[in-house]
Amino acid sequence: MTDQPQPGWFNSAVYVAVAWNLLGLIQYIAHVSLTPEALAAMSAAERDLIMSMPNWATGAFAVAVSAGFLGSALLLVKKAWALQFFLLSTLAVLVQNYYSFFMSKSVEVYGPVVYALPSVVLVVNLLLIWMCVNAKKQGWLS
Question: How far is CA 31 from CA 25, 120, 124, 138, in A?
């Protein structure tokens, strides 16, 4: 551990990051656990979109949320290694977004609103990277 005290905002932001990334894990599990009944309740376009997602895009989703959660957990225990996990998560988010925006029909199926959450996810990842870099410079991480 480091001897440098962290400001309250930092600790609060870390708890929010853990919760945010836990929600990402839950979303991933829900995505890969869709039942035939849940798929049948969707529109044909939505079902086709989900069923046509390639394994590499699903894998990018898994890496993004897993690395983000691990990075948050490492930040919680004040470890500088968190940065590498946030960088990996951000790379995986970009891969996943590339598929969603340029290779799939997600915009046709859901409309332009499809850009909202992935944009927020990317901004949050970039903020977490900034937070790690800043925390390391301040001596808050070991």
Answer: 10, 19, 21, 39
Cα separation of 125 and 59, whole Å?
18
pLDDT tops 60 at residue 142:
yes
For helices 55-76 and 8-32, angle between their N-to-C axes, nearest 10 degrees = 150
pTM score: 0.91
Dist CA 135 CA 142 (whole Å): 10
Q: How far apart are CA 51 and CA 123, in angstroms?
A: 28
Cα-based torsion angle of the residue sequence 122, 21, 130, 60 in order, rounded to the nearest 10 degrees: -50
**Residue ranges per domain, the chain?**
8-138
